Amino acid sequence: MSFDSATVQKTARLARIAVTDDEASRLEGELSKIFDWAEMLNEVDVEGVEPMTSVMPMDLKKRQDEVTDGGYAEKVTANAPESEDHFFVVPKVVE
Amino acid sequence: MSKLSDLTIAEMRDGLAAKSFSASELATDSISAVEAARDLNAFVTETPEKALEMAKASDARLAKGDAGSLEGIPLGIKDLFCTEGVLTTASSHILDGYIPPYESTVTANLWRDGAVMLGKLNCDEFAMGSSNETSYYGNVINPWRRDGSNTPLVPGGSSGGSSAAVAARLCPGATATDTGGSIRQPAAFTGTVGIKPTYGRCSRWGIAAFASSLDQAGPITRTVRDAAIMLGSMSGHDEKDSTSVDIAVPNFEAALTGDIRGMKIGIPKEYRIDGMSSEIEALWQQGIDWMKAAGAEIVDISLPHTKYALPAYYIVAPAEASSNLARYDGVKYGLREQGKDITDLYEKTRSAGFGAEVKRRVLIGTYVLSAGYYDAYYLKAQKVRTLIKRDFERAFETVDTILTPATPTAAFGIAEKSDDPLAMYLNDIFTVTVNMAGLPAITIPAGLSGEGTPLGLQLIGKAFDEVTLFRVGGVVEDAAGFEAKPDNWWA
Amino acid sequence: MYAEARDTDPAKYISGATGDWELVIGLEVHAQISSKSKLFSGASAAYGGEPNDHVSIVDVAMPGMLPVINQFCVRQAVKTGLGLKAQINLRSVFDRKNYFYPDLPQGYQISQFKNPIVGEGKVQLDMKDGTRVEIGIERLHMEQDAGKSVHDQHPSKSYVDLNRSGVALMEIVSLPDMRSSEEARTYVTKLRSILRYLGTCDGNMDEGSMRADVNVSVRKPGDPFGTRCEIKNVNSIRHVGQAIEYEARRQIDILEDGGKIEQQTRLFDPKTGETRTMRSKEEAHDYRYFPDPDLLPLEFTQSWVDEIAAELPELPDEKRARFMADYGLSPYDAGVLVADRKSATYFEQVASGRSAKLAVNWVMGDLSAAANDKNVSLDQVGVSPEQLGGMIDLIDDDTISGKIAKDVFEILLAEGGDPKEIVESRGLKQVTDTGAIEAAIDEVIAANPDKVAEVVEKPKMAGWFVGQVMKATGGKANPQAVNDILKAKLGLE
């Protein structure tokens, strides 16, 4: 399949990664090649095959309903590029 | 006597018990080995003060007769493992300056058992790579060189810092992670032992995620025994990881009996790929002969979906990665590039913060999950995974373990493959199948290439049967008698 | 898309310039599960808190953090499903819904997309006009709430607080079965009542514990469904009604002007009563749902579900039916009483072992009026069921008359106290001594010969005599006795 530059840009937009035109044209070629190669999967008959949902079959682990964590806003925001009064700060978000 | 840092974990353990040297002496020796080897670029962060402090505490416990299974053993930690109060980067620019306020379960287990941290090891960015060339902190250089050549070789990836550090005797063991071969391929490229345990054996809590359904932690060491000792400490049920399995951790070291008589070793015909080098073929045959000589029975088996594992992997892993890496957005921690609005901030931060390979995989993953493509790619790949797992289940009805080559080639030169992503991906061809099936596998150095660089063999086991891998692996190790080591050109 | 689940009632049509329009409404209600801790982390799920205080390293999506599910939240979701008479799925799957937003630290919300924990169910609505409407539930799934962005602290920045991030929500999706804003309001009210009975959501809409996404479309009767607009995050029942009314009119106006409805996400502005497009949501969505690889499928047994079913409390519909049967309540009265569990309990405490008729009259009459005045629920009026019941006992055994009882009730309301003592100490006891009543009647007859003459012609005048006698006895004479004796003395009948 061919992975055109518009698809690269659209996908990059979804992934929130700015991509320059140069990068986009390089990615076009690389991704096309990778997806061409992956076409190999079309040879496999998966009729009636269940997709893998748990690598090792086991019961889902569950917690009791207890408050065991939190109460450390300082720790939560210590690594933030910008914070104020324990809030994370970002450019204004318009609703 | 050789330097202390040349010793294996088992030898260090014995020496400490016999009071031949102290943990502090071990640490001091290792710290200088690490400092002397900076040309290898194996470490992103060295933590000598921490190492000395931990070693001192180990000495106190040793004196009280209160030693843990890894008491005083200096280890390197792949920078994917979060370490409390110590910079953790996943070798990515996007985690600039990130100091985790928590300790990953696996490293916490190691410290519980007395191990000493030398520092954080370089790796491919977010473990995406097979050569350690995608690290923001630069490539790691393989301590091994081709005979009569100064061409720098890759140490494999993604755990290239781990494999290089262990091969160069900077530490006797290192933590690593394996999503498609990231423990075993670098181990094979550096003449070291690497084991990826069964999915669920080691907790993933506190390890920066690449692909959640494939990631597993494991050790890289110089001997099978050391791998058994280290994995024993790293393993165990964790309430904080929903995919961690609640079963007892066996005494792996006790599995090293050397006796594999009557065991059935499977040889999968699909691993005899087109264009396989005669060198690799010969190595594999050598392994088969060793098994026979040790009294095991060789059984030809078929794993029909083998060739589909790699393309399926390159859909599943990027898909999960695209979602796992969405949290790196410049808001809560790490790098932020200013933007005119929030979307601009995200796009600039992630563009500046991620390297080319990570971007490539995030885009692949985003695409295969996007509307209209999910069924054709992700769902299909997960179905193929079921088929791959079934292949193994069927094979393990008749065999105890499966023997294959670890890699299609020996270590290649830096920049030799970095321009061709697909050629790079093909490095994982023998290793990726077990990740897709969640199974354990070990690679053991088994010989040298015609150019004098290491080659490895791989053993694949049943789920949670690492014991068999250690038992058979020990026999391969003994038979191979791999004594070669890289010249100490860097010090 | 959906089969028509109900017939159209022409009375509910909206008239426009080009004729009648039918309103079609479906609701997605987000209800916060009542629990101590979050869905996938051990941080507090309590409302409020200092910024980022109810946040763990899991909630802030630090590298390597993993979700572990809260068993109690699963139980709450199953309980709710049972309360909605819905199909409980013994196997469900958590998916990741991927999108970027500052209040979504993981870059994805853990939700259930293809395989929700609860499937189809139904909710019965009892409308004021006495009709019953059944609203289909399409599904209920569990998901994480997002954090909160504060936009008014700074001219160019938003402040992000993740306290709510990861709190357990149930998204309850109705079929497009509602045909008027009144039905939509009644539906939310009923749903809230059911959740509160179950104890699975506190239903406090002003704290955001319940909010609704309202899907509105209009069509000409008999036509297929029109294009819908979704009004996000409406946070009161009144606003649900207002938003629908506005949106319906907006869509009809567009269509009648020859325009087309664009499928949109809109916001309701309570200040103007209008809806407007949401700019941030204009971009096309592609949530890239896939099963969360950090979690396994959620599976449980039918016997566990049965255990929960056995512990379900009596729900509003059943209680209503029982109140009608046991206490002879009208459908409407019963509906009003059971809407609030505490009110229903209050009523039962008053009514048990007493005259149901009196209990109904007093609870639905004076007590409800007092509750309305104070804008509180019945149990918070300040008169306990024991007090009201005690007073009713005094009416029932003729110690006081209904009229005096009204005074006693006012005293209970204002001052409290034991009704029996109040009656005793203030001499409010009804006079049943026929001698005393006869004497009073005789006096009135003697003083009013003209009226006596008149009453023979106009028997309705008897009421005047009763009034005079009651006045003379300070209202304490037993009205029945007064009537009987008067009639005899005046020779009526």
Written account of the structure:
Helix content of chain A is 35%, strand content 9%. With 95 residues, chain A is α+β, with helices and mostly antiparallel strands. Chain A has a domain at 5-43: Histone, subunit A (Orthogonal Bundle), CATH 1.10.20. Chain A has a two-stranded antiparallel ribbon with strand order 2-3. In chain A, strand 2 (83-84) and strand 3 form a beta hairpin. Chain B has 491 residues and is an alpha/beta fold. Chain B has one domain: Amidase signature (AS) domain (Amidase signature (AS) enzymes, Alpha-Beta Complex), CATH 3.90.1300. The model of chain B has no long low-confidence stretch (mean pLDDT 97). Chain C is elongated. Chain C has 493 residues and is of the alpha+beta class. Chain C contains 15 helices and 17 strands. Chains A and B meet through helix 1, helix 2 and strand 3 of A and helix 9, helix 10, helix 11, helix 12 and helix 13 of B. Strand 1 (62-63) of chain A pairs parallel with strand 3 of chain C.
